[in-house]
């Protein structure tokens, strides 16, 4: 099935295939789990399936509340149909609580609630290890125009507001998250929309009561139980029910080359 389609791009966590119509792509979620720019790599059985479902859930809700995203619909266990966009080569990080690099680099205690939400930009480049950049770099080098950057930031803040409430409602603190955006051309109009994915791979999610990590830090910090944690997030959001098996049953997709 997969070899009928043209593979456009294979990344660390996903594969993009040509879509059924012009302007569309199929986004395939792999089980590959990487951190520290691929220096740490493992296949975690079933992760792609859960991320596909969680990302579908989040993007569907965002679409519904008028936040434009690339998501059209989920196709199967591991794939979703998306709109192709011209990617802006940035990772946009929104932080509500100090953790990860912010905590280590600035010597701020992990878990400190930030005085306000902070937006950071990283230039997407595997060769350079995704360096942090400022708005000045972004506009000077033309990665995005000042207007586009304003739109990106407005989008990021709206997404943060929505996600913070969504997770709070199920006993989870949204510590931080990463998004990627792109340009969607419609006739002679262009707008910035949310692309890529939002999943426990791209968010820090802490249980409000136990402070337990329910995100990719389980992998980064070798805490184990990653699938169980992602499943817990999906279960709390009402995406999968208690007894639904998420891996090890049903048809298995055969990956070619
Ligand atoms: N709607 C879209 N249209 C075009 N490209 C997209 C879209 N959504 C996501 N992408 C791109 O598809 C790729 C997804 O693959 P994946 O996330 O595995 O890449 P990656 O190895 O993590 O590398 P990257 O650091 O570029 O994200 C990313 O390069 C992402 O920017
Ligand atoms: Mg990626």
TrEMBL record:
Pathway: Purine metabolism; IMP biosynthesis via de novo pathway; 5-amino-1-(5-phospho-D-ribosyl)imidazole-4-carboxamide from 5-amino-1-(5-phospho-D-ribosyl)imidazole-4-carboxylate: step 1/2. It is an enzyme of class 6 (ligase). Residues 8-236 form the SAICAR synthetase/ADE2 N-terminal domain. The keyword ATP-binding applies. The keyword Phosphoprotein does not apply. Transmembrane segments: none annotated. CDD domains: SAICAR_synt_PurC (cd01415). GO terms for molecular function: ATP binding; phosphoribosylaminoimidazolesuccinocarboxamide synthase activity. GO terms for cellular component: cytosol. It comes from the Bacteria. Its EC number is 6.3.2.6. GO terms for biological process: 'de novo' IMP biosynthetic process; cobalamin biosynthetic process. It holds the Pfam family SAICAR_synt. It catalyses: 5-amino-1-(5-phospho-D-ribosyl)imidazole-4-carboxylate + L-aspartate + ATP = (2S)-2-[5-amino-1-(5-phospho-beta-D-ribosyl)imidazole-4-carboxamido]succinate + ADP + phosphate + 2 H(+). PANTHER family: MULTIFUNCTIONAL PROTEIN ADE2, SI:DKEY-6E2.2. This is Phosphoribosylaminoimidazole-succinocarboxamide synthase. It comes from Rhizobium setariae. The gene is purC.
């Amino acid at each position: 099935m997969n070899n009928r389609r043209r593979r456009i791009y294979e990344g660390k966590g996903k594969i993009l295939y040509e879509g059924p119509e012009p302007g569309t792509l199929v986004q395939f979620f792999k089980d590959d789990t990487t951190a520290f720019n691929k220096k740490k790599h493992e296949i975690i059985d079933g992760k792609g399936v859960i991320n596909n479902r969680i990302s579908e859930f989040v993007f569907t809700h965002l679409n519904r509340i008028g936040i434009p995203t690339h998501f059209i619909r989920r196709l199967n266990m591991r794939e979703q149909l998306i709109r192709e966009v011209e990617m802006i080569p940035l990772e946009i990080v929104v932080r509500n609580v100090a953790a990860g690099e912010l905590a280590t680099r600035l010597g701020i205690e992990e878990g400190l609630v930030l005085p306000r939400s902070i937006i950071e930009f990283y230039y997407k480049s595997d060769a350079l290890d995704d360096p942090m950049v400022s708005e000045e770099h972004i506009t000077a080098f033309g990665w995005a125009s000042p207007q586009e950057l304003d739109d990106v930031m407005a989008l990021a803040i709206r997404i943060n507001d929505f996600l913070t409430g969504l997770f709070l409602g199920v006993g989870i603190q949204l510590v931080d998250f990463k998004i990627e955006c792109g340009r969607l051309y419609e006739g002679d109009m262009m707008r910035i929309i949310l692309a890529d994915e939002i999943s426990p791979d791209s968010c820090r999610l802490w249980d409000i009561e136990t402070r337990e990590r329910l995100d990719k830090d389980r992998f980064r910090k070798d805490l184990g139980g990653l699938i169980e944690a992602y499943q817990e997030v999906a279960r709390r959001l009402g995406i999968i029910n208690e007894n639904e098996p998420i891996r090890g049953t049903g048809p298995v997709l055969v990956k070619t080359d």
